[in-house]
Write a structure and sequence with these properties.
A hairpin with a 2-residue loop joins strand 10 and strand 11. The strands form three sheets. A four-stranded antiparallel beta sheet has the order 1-8-3-6. A four-stranded antiparallel beta sheet has the order 2-7-4-5. 44% of the residues lie in helices and 23% in strands. By secondary structure, it is an alpha+beta fold.
Length: 219
Amino acid sequence: MNFADYFPVWNKLTPPQQHKISSCLFDRTIKKGTIIHHGSMDCTGLLFLKTGRLRAYILSAEGREITIYRLFDRDMCLFSASCMLNSIQFEIIIQAEKDTDLWIIPPEAYKQLMEESAPVANYTNEVMATRFSEVMWLIEQIMWRSLDKRIAGFLLDEAAIEAADKLKITHETIANHLGTHREVVTRMLRYFQNEGMVSLSRGIVEITDKERLEILQHD
């Protein structure tokens, strides 16, 4: 599939606009663990995922990580081109969680396209609204939900993403996603294990009672 199959408003562009985008975008393959974007001073460009997965996270003053959203096949990453958003600056770090193939559009070209095309501007605003909704959801989770419920929800989400109950994930990785300390995650997972909800081994968290995790998540 080519870029036209991935960009939702491609057919609403004029032929010159389509040519302009096609001539400036380029492919890139990102290896798992690679940081592709680092803070508001790094204007990487618009990222369109073909396959793979990216994680966008922020760092606290103490250096603690927290995931604010994740990107999957066909998603667009807008804040990797924060330099074209004059009134919005985010210190977001974007890292590949898996080997990822994507297209990159230079921010200047996309900004010009937004100014010329109402469908592109509307699509971009929808993406931005979705990302802000995800951030607001995260804030609500941190403020109003206990950590045991957040960990339960995270494990269930991971199982759905990976289509497996046996997750190859470390306690440190879970802590980084949730913005907490590894030791806290370890204590909670051991509690889950004692209650029969998970089984723990080195680098593995296996869900053994999904129903109880779901009850805990929504209790």
